[in-house]
């Protein structure tokens, strides 16, 4: 079975500067007293930077980004450390504190910074100040750097900026011929134009790529993607068809073609594209998954029969795959046989878990739960398998609408694995689903006690407080901590935009939610974006995103709530179930 997890709860944590600072303190104090007494008394930059460095780290860990940027800047001034100046700049940019960002950036430059990262920060600060001319100057300089780092940094600046502002700058860069003569650069910026919802610009880029790189198959992929985004699926398929025939010996290209067919909603064609050329277990598994989603049982059965003829040898991976295929085909007894036939190795425990799931599908609930209990108490099982047995039991109890049994499974799991973050996280989602926000918060906070840097827990708790309570400032601090760790994570940007909206900062929220949706087409993000647009009086555009959300996931809870709050009409009927 598969549980649906909201975007806000789906998620590289910052290295701890506190550890570094304490190490430096240790290094200073380890100098013999006599030597310290004999040394001339003068300001030690290392010592002078310790206090602001610690203050900056503690502020960062508390989600107070303005304070963190201030203290990191002080530490950079005291130590002359260019890395700290860079860190201060990045945190100030996250905090959207343009004054501090400008000051930190000037110090970073003064201390010898000359990297592409510095140039990208210059462009970002210029964009924030509304100086498109200065931003363009820095972006052009990045484009002209040798190698790939420069244009990639420019791409990052435009991807994370205000989508409307970024679109204008990208068009100007294309007009002026500033995109470097590299296929990957053109493909990336073509994809960016699509993400920024600029179909005409995307078409221009495709035409230029075709001119510069004739016969390159990845150009055709970009063209197909552009046609799909423009609402021309038949034309997109016409572009993909000859490409699929040529890609037999290029597994990477086959996968990209299959992905594009999948985006078109044509899983059968995606599976057919993967079927061309050499096959391995991963390819077989992808084909099976696509055919199952397409509900093409005829082709799936043929694939199953083909693989079944090769399963005489006791290969664990192949038998696992056959078990999964049989599950897709709802041939549960056969699936059970395959899973029970997995002889050992790392797949053994996964096979036993899948077998329990199959027994549940067969309505043999007592056997299913007995098998999970056996795994939970098996001392030879690894901890991950035993923990997953508790999680699967809770999921199956939820499917049975047995709320008490679900909670009991979590409780027993936590007794066996005290404060396990995965079990706590799953239980917190269960509490949130039941509208028991205090208990959900308690479980998220337990995770943060043992792992204060858990980005998933920070974001989930922050979003929950923003969405289900009025504790918006507290929510913002938690989300800011997650943003500091993963500034380009679409789910976190969505949470940030949502809390800004709840704080009444609707225009700022709109910018962030547009960014999030450009990074990830997700029903929940689309619903948030639609609600903000609706509240800003842009009902026509809001309906477009309500429709988009309904196509992606008509049963999405955030979508249903947004429709109820706004009273929006004219969206896909499935969203109003």
UniProtKB/TrEMBL annotation:
The keyword Repeat applies. Pfam families: TPR_16, TPR_2. Keywords: Repeat, Signal, TPR repeat. TPR repeats lie at residues 523-556. Transmembrane segments: none annotated. Residues 1-33 form the signal peptide. It comes from the Bacteria. This is Tetratricopeptide (TPR) repeat protein. It comes from Lysobacter niastensis.
């Amino acid at each position: 079975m598969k549980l649906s997890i909201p975007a806000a709860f789906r998620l590289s944590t910052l290295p701890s500067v506190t550890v570094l600072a304490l190490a430096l303190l240790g290094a200073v104090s380890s100098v013999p007293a006599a030597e310290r007494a004999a040394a001339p008394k003068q300001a030690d930059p290392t010592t002078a930077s310790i206090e602001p460095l610690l203050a900056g780290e503690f502020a960062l860990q508390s989600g107070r980004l303005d304070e963190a940027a201030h203290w990191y800047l002080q530490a950079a001034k005291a130590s002359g450390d260019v890395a700290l100046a860079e860190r201060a700049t990045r945190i100030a940019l996250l905090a959207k504190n343009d004054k501090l960002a400008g000051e930190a950036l000037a110090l970073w430059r003064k201390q010898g910074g000359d990297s592409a990262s510095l140039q990208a920060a210059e462009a970002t600060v210029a964009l924030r100040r509304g100086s498109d001319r200065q931003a363009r100057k820095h972006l052009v300089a990045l484009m002209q750097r040798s190698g790939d780092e420069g244009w990639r940094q420019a791409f990052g600046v435009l991807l994370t900026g205000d989508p409307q502002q970024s679109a204008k700058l990208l068009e100007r860069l294309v007009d002026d011929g500033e995109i470097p003569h590299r296929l990957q650069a053109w493909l990336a910026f073509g994809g960016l134009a699509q993400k920024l919802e600029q179909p005409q610009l995307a078409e221009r880029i495709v035409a230029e790529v075709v001119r510069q790189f004739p016969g390159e198959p990845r150009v055709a992929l970009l063209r197909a993607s552009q046609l799909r985004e423009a609402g021309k699926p038949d034309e997109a398929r016409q572009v993909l068809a000859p490409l699929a025939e040529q890609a037999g010996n290029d597994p990477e290209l086959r996968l990209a073609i299959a992905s594009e067919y999948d985006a078109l909603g044509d899983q059968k064609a995606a599976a057919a594209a993967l079927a061309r050329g050499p096959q391995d277990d991963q390819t077989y598994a992808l084909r099976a998954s696509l055919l199952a989603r397409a509900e093409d049982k005829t082709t799936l059965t043929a694939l199953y029969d083909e693989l079944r003829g090769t399963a005489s040898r006791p290969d664990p991976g192949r038998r696992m795959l056959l078990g999964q295929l049989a599950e897709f085909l709802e041939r549960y007894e056969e699936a059970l046989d395959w899973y029970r036939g997995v002889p050992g190795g790392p797949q053994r425990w996964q096979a036993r878990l899948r077998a329990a799931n199959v027994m549940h599908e067969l309505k043999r609930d007592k056997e299913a739960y007995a098998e999970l209990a056996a795994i939970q108490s098996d001392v030879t099982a690894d901890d991950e398998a035993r923990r997953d047995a508790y999680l699967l039991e809770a999921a199956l109890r939820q499917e049975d609408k047995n709320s008490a049994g679900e909670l009991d499974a979590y409780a027993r799991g936590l007794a066996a694995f005290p404060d396990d973050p995965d079990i706590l996280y799953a239980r917190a989602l269960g509490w949130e689903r039941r509208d028991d926000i205090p208990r959900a918060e308690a479980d998220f906070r337990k995770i943060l006690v043992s792992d204060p840097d858990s980005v998933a827990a920070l974001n989930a708790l922050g979003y929950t407080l923003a969405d289900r309570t009025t504790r918006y400032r507290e929510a913002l601090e938690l989300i800011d901590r997650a943003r500091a760790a993963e500034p380009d994570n679409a789910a976190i940007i969505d949470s940030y935009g949502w809390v800004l909206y709840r704080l009444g900062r609707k225009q700022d929220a709109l910018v962030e939610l547009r960014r999030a949706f450009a990074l990830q087409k997700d029903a929940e993000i689309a619903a948030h974006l639609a609600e903000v647009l609706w509240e800003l009086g842009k009902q026509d555009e809001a309906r477009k995103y309500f429709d988009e959300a309904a196509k992606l996931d008509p049963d999405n809870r955030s979508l249903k709530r947004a429709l109820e709050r706004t009273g929006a009409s004219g969206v896909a009927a499935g969203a109003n179930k």
